[in-house]
Design goal:
Length: 249
């Protein structure tokens, strides 16, 4: 797991990159009082969150990666995560899916053989759920965020706060001992609202996102019921999250 000192360094790096768009290894190491190797490792972790890009001698701020850009990254691992979560999708009732590419993979696998309503703020995920017998897809409404092909804002959060979900299936830009984080404030607000309206919260993330931090905190660790990664539940990298992965195979 990432230490508290590392979390503080990464938060500082994100703030500096957001403000200045670029930071050098030498400058950051001097400001933080650590080695350039330490800063390089911190930047490598932040790059996995999709808001920065490592360049020669430092890093530059890129903002959130597009849906199609994320969809092509680690596709096989995302498929594995979706397969693990699929048996946990109920056949009836109402659930929510976020706008992530991992949950888009899950949406493509839901058979719709019962009487299930799926609410999502992901425009492409909504499309993937169309014309399934026994399944009703609902798009939340809200302002379109073309950075993520999702719907966000007060209309979105207002809608989901008035609905009760049996389960919320979501991914995250990063996950540490505090919980899930997102690359935009708007997406974090939507996920926070859905989590509060849900009986269970099931998170699916690539293991490389564990221990890293992104721009905005979304869901507290105590709100998460299940964590799925591409790793086996007994993998060493999941030791800190053992409670959340114990029921997955």
């Amino acid at each position: 797991m990432v230490s508290l000192a590392a979390e503080e360094r990464r938060a500082w790096l994100l703030q500096r990159l957001s403000a200045l768009q670029r930071v050098s290894l030498a400058e950051a190491a001097s400001e933080l009082g650590v080695s350039e190797m330490t800063v390089r490792r911190d930047l490598d972790g932040l790059e996995l969150g999709g808001t920065i890009r490592r360049v020669r001698g430092g890093a530059m701020y890129t903002g959130p990666v597009s849906f199609h850009g994320r969809e092509q990254s680690q596709a096989a691992e995302k498929a594995t995560i979706a397969e693990k979560l699929l048996p946990l999708v109920p056949t009836s009732g109402m659930i929510a899916l976020d706008s992530s590419t991992t949950m888009h993979q899950l949406a493509q696998r839901i058979s719709g053989s019962g009487d299930l309503t799926v609410v999502t703020n992901g425009m492409l995920t909504f499309q993937a759920l169309q014309e399934r017998p026994g399944l009703t897809a609902v798009l939340t409404g809200g302002a379109a965020d073309r950075r993520s092909d999702s719907l966000v804002g007060p209309v979105t959060t207002g809608f989901v706060s008035r609905v009760h979900f049996s389960a919320f299936f979501a991914s995250a830009a990063s996950l540490d001992e505090r919980g899930c984080h997102e690359s935009t404030l708007e997406e974090a607000e939507v996920k926070r609202a859905i989590a509060r309206a849900s009986e269970r919260v099931l998170i699916g993330v690539h293991s490389e996102k564990l221990g890293s931090v992104s721009v905005a905190h979304a869901v507290d660790i105590d709100e998460i019921d299940t964590l799925a990664t591409e790793l086996a539940p007994n993998a060493r990298d999941l030791a800190a999250f053992r409670r959340l992965v114990s029921d997955l195979r």
